[in-house]
Amino acid sequence: MSLLQKGSKIKEFFLMTIGILIMVVGIYFFKFPNNFSFGGVTGIAVILSRYTAGFLTKGNIVLIFNVLLLIIGYFSIGEAFAFKTVYCSLLMSGALQVLEWVCPLKQPLTDEPVLELAFGVLLPALGSAILFNIGASSGGTDILAMIIKKHTDVDIGKGLMISDTALTLLTFVSFDIKTGLMSLLGLITKSLVIDTVIEGINLCKYINIVCDDPEPILRYIEDDLNRSATVTDAMGAYSGKNKTMVLTVVTRRQAMLLKRYVHHIEPTAFMIITSTSEIIGKGFIRV
Question: Which structural domains are found in the chain, ordered by start?
Answer without folding.
Answer: 3-201 (no CATH), 204-276 (3.30.70.120)
